[in-house]
What does this fold into?
Amino acid sequence: MLKNLVIAVFLGIAILSCQNKDKKEEEESTKRELYRPVYHFTPIQNWINDPNGMVYLDGEYHLFYQYNPFGNEWGHMSWGHAVSKDLLTWEHLPVALKEFRNKDDTTQTMIFSGSAVIDSANTSGFFEKGKKNGMVAIYTSNVHASGKGVAQHQSIAYSADKGRTWKQYDKNPVLNIGLKDFRDPNVFWYAPDKKWIMSVVKPLDYTVQFYQSQNLKEWKLMSEFGKKGDMTKIWECPALFPIPVEGSDQKKWILTVSSGHRQKNYLAMQYFVGDFDGKTFTPQKQDEILYVDEGKDFYAGIPFNSLPASHTKPVMIGWINDWEYANKLPSAKFKGSMSVPRELSLQSTPAGYRLIQTPVSLKSKQEAGLDEKDLKVSGNHSLDFSGESYEVEAEISLGSAKKIGINLLKSGSEESSLTYDVSSSTLSFDRKKSGNVDFHERFPSIESVTVKPQNGVLKLHLLVDQSVVEIFANDGEKVMTDMVFPTKHEGKIELVSDGEVIFKSLAIHGIK
It folds into this structure.
Protein backbone atom coordinates (compact mmCIF):
# COMPACT_ATOMS: atom_id res chain seq x y z
CA MET A 1 0.00 0.00 0.00
CA LEU A 2 2.78 2.40 1.00
CA LYS A 3 4.69 1.49 -2.17
CA ASN A 4 1.66 2.31 -4.32
CA LEU A 5 1.22 5.60 -2.47
CA VAL A 6 4.84 6.57 -3.08
CA ILE A 7 4.49 5.71 -6.80
CA ALA A 8 1.31 7.76 -7.00
CA VAL A 9 3.01 10.74 -5.35
CA PHE A 10 5.97 10.54 -7.75
CA LEU A 11 3.61 10.23 -10.73
CA GLY A 12 1.65 13.22 -9.49
CA ILE A 13 4.82 15.27 -9.09
CA ALA A 14 6.00 14.21 -12.55
CA ILE A 15 2.68 15.11 -14.16
CA LEU A 16 2.55 18.44 -12.35
CA SER A 17 6.16 19.14 -13.39
CA CYS A 18 5.33 18.35 -17.04
CA GLN A 19 2.23 20.54 -16.89
CA ASN A 20 4.22 23.42 -15.40
CA LYS A 21 6.90 22.94 -18.05
CA ASP A 22 4.30 22.88 -20.82
CA LYS A 23 2.62 25.97 -19.36
CA LYS A 24 5.96 27.79 -19.11
CA GLU A 25 6.84 26.86 -22.70
CA GLU A 26 3.40 28.01 -23.87
CA GLU A 27 3.75 31.30 -22.00
CA GLU A 28 7.23 31.81 -23.45
CA SER A 29 5.95 30.99 -26.95
CA THR A 30 3.09 33.47 -26.54
CA LYS A 31 5.52 36.10 -25.31
CA ARG A 32 7.79 35.55 -28.30
CA GLU A 33 4.88 35.75 -30.73
CA LEU A 34 4.06 39.24 -29.45
CA TYR A 35 6.92 40.35 -31.68
CA ARG A 36 5.19 38.95 -34.77
CA PRO A 37 3.71 41.81 -36.85
CA VAL A 38 0.00 41.74 -37.64
CA TYR A 39 0.02 43.43 -41.05
CA HIS A 40 3.65 43.11 -42.13
CA PHE A 41 4.48 39.85 -43.89
CA THR A 42 6.41 37.22 -41.93
CA PRO A 43 7.01 33.52 -42.62
CA ILE A 44 5.12 31.02 -40.48
CA GLN A 45 8.49 30.06 -39.04
CA ASN A 46 12.24 30.28 -39.71
CA TRP A 47 14.54 32.79 -41.37
CA ILE A 48 13.55 35.26 -44.09
CA ASN A 49 15.53 37.91 -45.98
CA ASP A 50 15.39 39.56 -49.43
CA PRO A 51 12.06 39.78 -51.30
CA ASN A 52 12.41 38.04 -54.67
CA GLY A 53 10.44 37.47 -57.85
CA MET A 54 7.63 39.94 -57.08
CA VAL A 55 5.13 39.74 -59.91
CA TYR A 56 1.40 40.07 -60.59
CA LEU A 57 -0.60 37.49 -62.52
CA ASP A 58 -4.35 36.88 -62.90
CA GLY A 59 -5.48 38.65 -59.75
CA GLU A 60 -2.61 37.47 -57.55
CA TYR A 61 0.41 39.35 -56.27
CA HIS A 62 3.29 36.90 -55.87
CA LEU A 63 5.93 37.39 -53.22
CA PHE A 64 8.90 35.06 -53.32
CA TYR A 65 11.60 35.55 -50.73
CA GLN A 66 14.92 34.28 -49.42
CA TYR A 67 14.04 31.54 -46.94
CA ASN A 68 15.70 28.91 -44.79
CA PRO A 69 13.31 25.92 -44.58
CA PHE A 70 15.39 24.33 -41.81
CA GLY A 71 16.20 26.99 -39.26
CA ASN A 72 15.90 30.44 -37.73
CA GLU A 73 19.22 31.83 -38.95
CA TRP A 74 20.59 32.40 -42.45
CA GLY A 75 21.37 29.25 -44.43
CA HIS A 76 20.07 26.75 -47.03
CA MET A 77 18.73 29.63 -49.13
CA SER A 78 15.61 28.75 -51.09
CA TRP A 79 12.64 30.74 -52.39
CA GLY A 80 9.65 30.86 -50.06
CA HIS A 81 6.35 31.81 -51.68
CA ALA A 82 3.15 33.64 -50.78
CA VAL A 83 0.28 35.19 -52.76
CA SER A 84 -2.17 37.99 -52.05
CA LYS A 85 -5.18 39.57 -53.73
CA ASP A 86 -4.81 42.92 -51.97
CA LEU A 87 -1.11 43.26 -51.01
CA LEU A 88 -2.08 43.06 -47.32
CA THR A 89 -3.40 39.56 -46.61
CA TRP A 90 -1.02 36.82 -47.70
CA GLU A 91 -1.53 33.11 -48.26
CA HIS A 92 1.51 30.97 -47.54
CA LEU A 93 2.39 28.44 -50.25
CA PRO A 94 4.98 25.62 -50.31
CA VAL A 95 8.64 26.47 -50.91
CA ALA A 96 8.96 27.28 -54.61
CA LEU A 97 12.66 26.85 -55.47
CA LYS A 98 14.73 24.65 -53.18
CA GLU A 99 18.45 24.38 -52.58
CA PHE A 100 19.73 21.32 -54.44
CA ARG A 101 22.78 19.06 -54.65
CA ASN A 102 24.74 19.28 -57.89
CA LYS A 103 25.59 16.35 -60.13
CA ASP A 104 29.23 16.34 -58.96
CA ASP A 105 27.85 15.34 -55.53
CA THR A 106 30.43 17.56 -53.82
CA THR A 107 28.71 20.94 -54.14
CA GLN A 108 25.24 22.34 -53.58
CA THR A 109 23.39 25.26 -55.12
CA MET A 110 21.49 27.75 -53.01
CA ILE A 111 18.76 29.81 -54.68
CA PHE A 112 19.91 33.38 -54.08
CA SER A 113 18.02 36.59 -54.91
CA GLY A 114 16.43 37.37 -58.27
CA SER A 115 13.22 38.26 -60.04
CA ALA A 116 10.28 36.73 -61.89
CA VAL A 117 8.56 37.70 -65.14
CA ILE A 118 5.43 36.71 -67.04
CA ASP A 119 6.54 35.40 -70.44
CA SER A 120 3.23 36.17 -72.14
CA ALA A 121 4.67 35.84 -75.67
CA ASN A 122 6.47 32.59 -74.78
CA THR A 123 9.81 34.03 -75.86
CA SER A 124 11.52 31.29 -73.86
CA GLY A 125 9.70 28.45 -75.62
CA PHE A 126 9.04 26.79 -72.26
CA PHE A 127 5.25 26.80 -72.51
CA GLU A 128 2.49 25.29 -74.64
CA LYS A 129 1.33 27.26 -77.65
CA GLY A 130 -1.39 29.73 -76.74
CA LYS A 131 -0.50 29.79 -73.05
CA LYS A 132 0.00 33.37 -71.86
CA ASN A 133 0.61 32.95 -68.16
CA GLY A 134 4.00 31.24 -68.09
CA MET A 135 6.17 32.45 -65.23
CA VAL A 136 9.97 32.47 -65.39
CA ALA A 137 12.22 33.00 -62.36
CA ILE A 138 15.70 34.41 -62.87
CA TYR A 139 17.93 33.89 -59.82
CA THR A 140 21.54 33.70 -58.71
CA SER A 141 22.71 30.10 -58.46
CA ASN A 142 25.13 30.20 -55.54
CA VAL A 143 27.38 27.12 -55.67
CA HIS A 144 28.96 26.19 -52.36
CA ALA A 145 30.90 23.38 -50.75
CA SER A 146 31.20 22.81 -47.01
CA GLY A 147 29.55 26.17 -46.40
CA LYS A 148 32.02 28.13 -48.55
CA GLY A 149 31.03 29.90 -51.77
CA VAL A 150 32.54 28.53 -54.96
CA ALA A 151 30.79 30.44 -57.74
CA GLN A 152 27.80 32.67 -58.54
CA HIS A 153 25.99 32.81 -61.85
CA GLN A 154 22.47 33.45 -63.12
CA SER A 155 20.02 30.61 -63.75
CA ILE A 156 16.35 30.26 -64.62
CA ALA A 157 13.38 28.07 -63.73
CA TYR A 158 9.85 28.11 -65.12
CA SER A 159 6.29 27.44 -64.01
CA ALA A 160 3.16 26.80 -66.09
CA ASP A 161 0.77 26.73 -63.11
CA LYS A 162 1.09 30.24 -61.65
CA GLY A 163 4.16 29.53 -59.58
CA ARG A 164 2.86 26.46 -57.76
CA THR A 165 5.38 24.04 -59.29
CA TRP A 166 8.70 24.70 -61.02
CA LYS A 167 11.18 23.12 -63.42
CA GLN A 168 14.83 24.06 -63.65
CA TYR A 169 16.16 24.89 -67.12
CA ASP A 170 18.35 21.96 -68.15
CA LYS A 171 21.06 24.21 -69.60
CA ASN A 172 21.61 26.42 -66.57
CA PRO A 173 23.40 28.71 -65.91
CA VAL A 174 22.27 31.23 -68.53
CA LEU A 175 24.81 33.89 -67.56
CA ASN A 176 28.24 33.05 -66.16
CA ILE A 177 31.18 35.47 -66.23
CA GLY A 178 33.40 33.34 -63.99
CA LEU A 179 33.14 35.38 -60.79
CA LYS A 180 32.67 34.16 -57.25
CA ASP A 181 30.55 37.25 -56.49
CA PHE A 182 28.08 38.13 -59.26
CA ARG A 183 24.42 38.27 -58.28
CA ASP A 184 20.85 39.49 -57.83
CA PRO A 185 19.41 39.66 -61.37
CA ASN A 186 16.42 41.93 -61.82
CA VAL A 187 14.66 41.42 -65.16
CA PHE A 188 11.86 43.29 -66.95
CA TRP A 189 10.36 43.50 -70.45
CA TYR A 190 11.45 46.59 -72.41
CA ALA A 191 8.59 47.11 -74.86
CA PRO A 192 10.20 49.73 -77.20
CA ASP A 193 12.87 47.23 -78.32
CA LYS A 194 10.86 44.07 -77.58
CA LYS A 195 13.53 42.55 -75.38
CA TRP A 196 14.25 41.49 -71.83
CA ILE A 197 16.66 43.60 -69.79
CA MET A 198 18.60 42.38 -66.77
CA SER A 199 20.26 44.48 -64.09
CA VAL A 200 22.83 42.49 -62.11
CA VAL A 201 25.73 43.46 -59.84
CA LYS A 202 29.41 42.81 -59.47
CA PRO A 203 29.15 43.59 -55.75
CA LEU A 204 32.84 43.94 -54.94
CA ASP A 205 33.32 46.32 -57.86
CA TYR A 206 30.35 48.57 -56.96
CA THR A 207 29.10 48.04 -60.51
CA VAL A 208 25.71 47.30 -62.07
CA GLN A 209 25.74 45.57 -65.45
CA PHE A 210 22.85 45.75 -67.94
CA TYR A 211 22.22 42.78 -70.26
CA GLN A 212 19.64 42.16 -72.99
CA SER A 213 17.99 38.97 -74.23
CA GLN A 214 15.31 37.90 -76.68
CA ASN A 215 14.51 34.60 -74.97
CA LEU A 216 15.64 34.78 -71.30
CA LYS A 217 18.26 32.12 -72.08
CA GLU A 218 21.01 34.01 -73.95
CA TRP A 219 22.25 37.32 -72.56
CA LYS A 220 24.43 40.04 -74.11
CA LEU A 221 26.16 42.79 -72.13
CA MET A 222 24.99 46.30 -73.13
CA SER A 223 26.55 48.70 -70.58
CA GLU A 224 27.73 49.26 -67.03
CA PHE A 225 27.07 51.82 -64.30
CA GLY A 226 28.86 52.23 -61.01
CA LYS A 227 31.52 53.49 -58.67
CA LYS A 228 29.24 56.34 -57.57
CA GLY A 229 27.26 57.16 -54.48
CA ASP A 230 27.60 54.99 -51.38
CA MET A 231 30.47 52.53 -51.62
CA THR A 232 30.91 51.86 -47.90
CA LYS A 233 29.32 48.41 -48.36
CA ILE A 234 29.16 46.00 -51.29
CA TRP A 235 26.41 46.63 -53.86
CA GLU A 236 23.46 44.26 -53.99
CA CYS A 237 19.90 43.84 -55.33
CA PRO A 238 19.77 46.38 -58.19
CA ALA A 239 16.50 47.38 -59.86
CA LEU A 240 16.03 49.66 -62.87
CA PHE A 241 12.49 50.84 -63.63
CA PRO A 242 10.45 53.81 -64.96
CA ILE A 243 8.80 56.09 -62.41
CA PRO A 244 6.29 58.95 -62.76
CA VAL A 245 7.00 62.57 -61.79
CA GLU A 246 4.32 64.07 -59.53
CA GLY A 247 2.17 66.79 -61.12
CA SER A 248 3.19 65.99 -64.70
CA ASP A 249 2.92 63.42 -67.47
CA GLN A 250 6.68 62.95 -67.38
CA LYS A 251 8.48 59.75 -66.47
CA LYS A 252 12.08 59.24 -65.50
CA TRP A 253 14.10 56.10 -64.73
CA ILE A 254 15.34 55.15 -61.30
CA LEU A 255 18.09 52.71 -60.35
CA THR A 256 18.00 51.40 -56.79
CA VAL A 257 20.97 49.63 -55.21
CA SER A 258 21.31 48.14 -51.74
CA SER A 259 24.57 49.14 -50.08
CA GLY A 260 25.76 51.15 -47.04
CA HIS A 261 24.16 53.62 -44.65
CA ARG A 262 24.94 57.14 -43.47
CA GLN A 263 25.94 55.58 -40.16
CA LYS A 264 28.98 53.34 -40.51
CA ASN A 265 28.51 49.61 -41.17
CA TYR A 266 24.72 49.64 -41.18
CA LEU A 267 22.75 48.83 -44.35
CA ALA A 268 20.55 51.01 -46.53
CA MET A 269 19.35 51.46 -50.09
CA GLN A 270 20.50 54.25 -52.37
CA TYR A 271 18.96 55.45 -55.61
CA PHE A 272 19.95 57.27 -58.78
CA VAL A 273 17.50 59.12 -61.06
CA GLY A 274 18.11 59.55 -64.77
CA ASP A 275 17.25 58.37 -68.26
CA PHE A 276 17.45 54.99 -69.98
CA ASP A 277 17.57 54.55 -73.77
CA GLY A 278 17.27 50.78 -73.85
CA LYS A 279 21.01 50.31 -73.52
CA THR A 280 22.58 52.83 -71.13
CA PHE A 281 21.43 54.41 -67.88
CA THR A 282 22.45 58.09 -67.65
CA PRO A 283 22.00 59.59 -64.17
CA GLN A 284 21.17 63.17 -63.31
CA LYS A 285 23.85 65.16 -61.51
CA GLN A 286 23.55 64.78 -57.76
CA ASP A 287 25.65 66.44 -55.08
CA GLU A 288 24.65 64.07 -52.29
CA ILE A 289 23.99 60.38 -51.75
CA LEU A 290 20.26 59.71 -52.00
CA TYR A 291 18.88 57.04 -49.67
CA VAL A 292 15.54 55.31 -50.08
CA ASP A 293 15.01 54.93 -46.33
CA GLU A 294 16.90 56.68 -43.52
CA GLY A 295 16.18 54.01 -40.89
CA LYS A 296 18.34 51.00 -40.08
CA ASP A 297 15.94 48.30 -41.19
CA PHE A 298 14.90 48.64 -44.85
CA TYR A 299 17.03 46.76 -47.38
CA ALA A 300 16.99 44.77 -50.64
CA GLY A 301 13.73 46.33 -51.86
CA ILE A 302 12.54 45.61 -55.41
CA PRO A 303 9.39 46.55 -57.36
CA PHE A 304 6.66 44.28 -58.70
CA ASN A 305 6.68 43.25 -62.36
CA SER A 306 3.61 43.18 -64.63
CA LEU A 307 1.33 45.29 -62.46
CA PRO A 308 -2.15 45.94 -63.91
CA ALA A 309 -3.05 49.36 -65.32
CA SER A 310 -4.85 50.28 -62.07
CA HIS A 311 -1.39 50.77 -60.57
CA THR A 312 -0.07 54.05 -61.92
CA LYS A 313 3.05 53.92 -59.74
CA PRO A 314 5.69 51.24 -59.07
CA VAL A 315 5.13 49.22 -55.88
CA MET A 316 8.14 48.15 -53.80
CA ILE A 317 8.58 45.82 -50.82
CA GLY A 318 11.77 45.73 -48.74
CA TRP A 319 13.30 43.41 -46.14
CA ILE A 320 13.01 44.71 -42.58
CA ASN A 321 16.26 43.81 -40.83
CA ASP A 322 19.96 44.71 -40.81
CA TRP A 323 22.90 42.33 -41.19
CA GLU A 324 24.61 43.95 -38.19
CA TYR A 325 22.26 42.03 -35.86
CA ALA A 326 19.99 40.04 -38.19
CA ASN A 327 20.72 36.58 -36.77
CA LYS A 328 20.33 37.75 -33.16
CA LEU A 329 16.79 39.16 -33.17
CA PRO A 330 14.81 38.16 -30.04
CA SER A 331 11.98 36.62 -32.06
CA ALA A 332 12.34 32.86 -31.68
CA LYS A 333 9.91 31.33 -34.17
CA PHE A 334 10.84 33.59 -37.06
CA LYS A 335 13.42 36.20 -37.95
CA GLY A 336 12.79 39.11 -40.28
CA SER A 337 9.74 40.60 -41.98
CA MET A 338 8.72 42.59 -45.04
CA SER A 339 7.67 46.21 -45.26
CA VAL A 340 4.16 47.26 -46.13
CA PRO A 341 4.17 47.70 -49.93
CA ARG A 342 5.06 51.26 -50.97
CA GLU A 343 3.98 53.24 -54.01
CA LEU A 344 6.84 55.22 -55.54
CA SER A 345 6.99 58.47 -57.50
CA LEU A 346 9.35 61.41 -57.99
CA GLN A 347 9.08 65.02 -56.97
CA SER A 348 10.88 67.75 -58.90
CA THR A 349 12.90 69.96 -56.53
CA PRO A 350 15.50 72.71 -57.04
CA ALA A 351 18.17 70.11 -56.14
CA GLY A 352 16.84 67.58 -58.65
CA TYR A 353 14.35 64.73 -58.56
CA ARG A 354 13.66 63.15 -55.18
CA LEU A 355 11.83 59.95 -54.28
CA ILE A 356 8.35 60.02 -52.75
CA GLN A 357 7.06 56.89 -50.97
CA THR A 358 3.58 56.20 -49.65
CA PRO A 359 2.32 52.95 -48.11
CA VAL A 360 -0.59 51.23 -49.81
CA SER A 361 -3.92 51.99 -48.17
CA LEU A 362 -4.72 50.06 -45.00
CA LYS A 363 -8.37 51.19 -44.85
CA SER A 364 -9.73 47.69 -45.43
CA LYS A 365 -7.91 46.54 -42.28
CA GLN A 366 -8.66 49.50 -40.01
CA GLU A 367 -10.60 49.22 -36.77
CA ALA A 368 -12.20 51.96 -34.70
CA GLY A 369 -9.67 54.20 -33.03
CA LEU A 370 -9.18 57.84 -32.23
CA ASP A 371 -10.00 60.91 -34.34
CA GLU A 372 -9.07 64.37 -33.01
CA LYS A 373 -9.28 67.83 -34.57
CA ASP A 374 -7.40 70.95 -33.44
CA LEU A 375 -5.94 69.24 -30.38
CA LYS A 376 -3.76 71.67 -28.40
CA VAL A 377 -0.78 70.16 -26.63
CA SER A 378 1.64 71.78 -24.21
CA GLY A 379 3.79 69.52 -22.07
CA ASN A 380 2.86 65.83 -21.88
CA HIS A 381 -0.50 64.51 -23.08
CA SER A 382 -1.49 60.82 -22.92
CA LEU A 383 -3.98 59.69 -25.55
CA ASP A 384 -7.00 57.54 -24.85
CA PHE A 385 -5.68 54.76 -27.05
CA SER A 386 -3.51 51.72 -26.52
CA GLY A 387 -2.33 48.99 -28.83
CA GLU A 388 0.69 47.56 -30.60
CA SER A 389 -0.57 47.34 -34.21
CA TYR A 390 -2.00 50.57 -35.54
CA GLU A 391 -1.70 53.44 -38.02
CA VAL A 392 -1.26 57.13 -37.15
CA GLU A 393 -1.90 60.09 -39.47
CA ALA A 394 -1.21 63.56 -38.12
CA GLU A 395 -1.01 67.15 -39.36
CA ILE A 396 0.80 69.31 -36.83
CA SER A 397 0.77 73.12 -36.80
CA LEU A 398 4.08 73.94 -35.15
CA GLY A 399 2.97 77.11 -33.36
CA SER A 400 5.41 78.24 -30.66
CA ALA A 401 6.78 74.77 -30.00
CA LYS A 402 10.52 74.21 -29.90
CA LYS A 403 10.29 70.42 -29.80
CA ILE A 404 7.44 68.01 -30.49
CA GLY A 405 7.36 64.35 -29.64
CA ILE A 406 5.23 61.25 -30.06
CA ASN A 407 6.17 58.43 -27.71
CA LEU A 408 5.01 55.13 -29.19
CA LEU A 409 4.57 51.72 -27.52
CA LYS A 410 4.94 53.42 -24.14
CA SER A 411 4.91 51.39 -20.93
CA GLY A 412 6.32 53.40 -18.01
CA SER A 413 9.85 54.46 -18.93
CA GLU A 414 9.90 52.12 -21.95
CA GLU A 415 9.10 53.96 -25.20
CA SER A 416 10.01 54.40 -28.85
CA SER A 417 10.34 58.15 -29.31
CA LEU A 418 9.74 60.23 -32.40
CA THR A 419 10.92 63.83 -31.93
CA TYR A 420 10.88 66.92 -34.14
CA ASP A 421 13.28 69.79 -33.43
CA VAL A 422 11.68 72.89 -34.93
CA SER A 423 14.80 75.09 -35.04
CA SER A 424 16.84 72.55 -37.03
CA SER A 425 13.92 70.91 -38.87
CA THR A 426 15.25 67.54 -37.65
CA LEU A 427 13.03 64.50 -37.26
CA SER A 428 14.58 61.81 -35.03
CA PHE A 429 13.57 58.32 -33.97
CA ASP A 430 15.12 57.00 -30.76
CA ARG A 431 14.84 53.28 -29.95
CA LYS A 432 17.41 53.24 -27.14
CA LYS A 433 14.66 52.87 -24.51
CA SER A 434 12.28 50.83 -26.67
CA GLY A 435 12.55 47.58 -24.67
CA ASN A 436 14.93 44.72 -25.43
CA VAL A 437 17.89 46.57 -26.93
CA ASP A 438 20.81 44.65 -25.47
CA PHE A 439 20.58 41.49 -27.59
CA HIS A 440 23.23 43.11 -29.80
CA GLU A 441 25.52 46.09 -29.17
CA ARG A 442 24.71 47.60 -32.58
CA PHE A 443 20.95 47.63 -32.10
CA PRO A 444 20.34 50.68 -29.84
CA SER A 445 20.32 53.72 -32.12
CA ILE A 446 18.91 57.09 -33.06
CA GLU A 447 18.05 57.97 -36.66
CA SER A 448 17.70 61.59 -37.80
CA VAL A 449 16.66 63.25 -41.02
CA THR A 450 15.92 66.82 -42.14
CA VAL A 451 12.24 67.48 -42.84
CA LYS A 452 11.19 71.03 -43.70
CA PRO A 453 7.67 72.04 -42.60
CA GLN A 454 5.14 72.87 -45.30
CA ASN A 455 3.57 76.26 -44.54
CA GLY A 456 4.27 75.75 -40.85
CA VAL A 457 2.78 72.23 -40.85
CA LEU A 458 4.48 68.87 -40.34
CA LYS A 459 2.71 65.77 -41.68
CA LEU A 460 3.39 62.34 -40.20
CA HIS A 461 2.14 58.90 -41.26
CA LEU A 462 3.23 56.13 -38.89
CA LEU A 463 2.82 52.38 -39.23
CA VAL A 464 3.36 50.68 -35.88
CA ASP A 465 3.13 46.90 -35.80
CA GLN A 466 4.38 44.98 -32.75
CA SER A 467 8.10 45.07 -33.62
CA VAL A 468 8.08 47.33 -36.70
CA VAL A 469 7.83 51.11 -37.02
CA GLU A 470 7.63 52.73 -40.48
CA ILE A 471 7.69 56.54 -40.48
CA PHE A 472 6.59 58.59 -43.50
CA ALA A 473 7.06 62.37 -43.20
CA ASN A 474 5.45 65.05 -45.36
CA ASP A 475 3.55 62.68 -47.66
CA GLY A 476 6.51 60.32 -48.03
CA GLU A 477 9.20 62.92 -48.69
CA LYS A 478 11.39 61.25 -46.04
CA VAL A 479 11.05 57.73 -44.64
CA MET A 480 12.56 55.85 -41.70
CA THR A 481 12.04 52.16 -40.85
CA ASP A 482 13.20 50.57 -37.60
CA MET A 483 12.50 47.47 -35.56
CA VAL A 484 11.75 47.63 -31.83
CA PHE A 485 11.19 44.88 -29.25
CA PRO A 486 9.07 46.04 -26.29
CA THR A 487 9.32 43.99 -23.11
CA LYS A 488 6.19 45.61 -21.64
CA HIS A 489 2.96 45.78 -23.54
CA GLU A 490 0.73 48.61 -22.31
CA GLY A 491 1.11 50.11 -25.79
CA LYS A 492 0.26 53.67 -24.82
CA ILE A 493 0.80 56.77 -26.96
CA GLU A 494 2.00 60.05 -25.47
CA LEU A 495 2.23 63.45 -27.16
CA VAL A 496 4.94 65.83 -25.94
CA SER A 497 5.51 69.50 -26.73
CA ASP A 498 7.98 72.10 -25.50
CA GLY A 499 5.67 75.06 -26.14
CA GLU A 500 2.14 74.96 -27.51
CA VAL A 501 1.45 72.98 -30.64
CA ILE A 502 -1.80 72.18 -32.43
CA PHE A 503 -2.53 68.80 -33.94
CA LYS A 504 -4.84 70.04 -36.69
CA SER A 505 -5.82 66.43 -37.28
CA LEU A 506 -4.85 63.23 -35.51
CA ALA A 507 -6.27 59.87 -36.60
CA ILE A 508 -5.25 56.57 -35.03
CA HIS A 509 -6.68 53.26 -36.22
CA GLY A 510 -6.02 49.79 -34.92
CA ILE A 511 -5.24 47.30 -37.67
CA LYS A 512 -6.84 43.87 -37.88
Residues 142 and 512 are 39 Å apart (CA to CA).
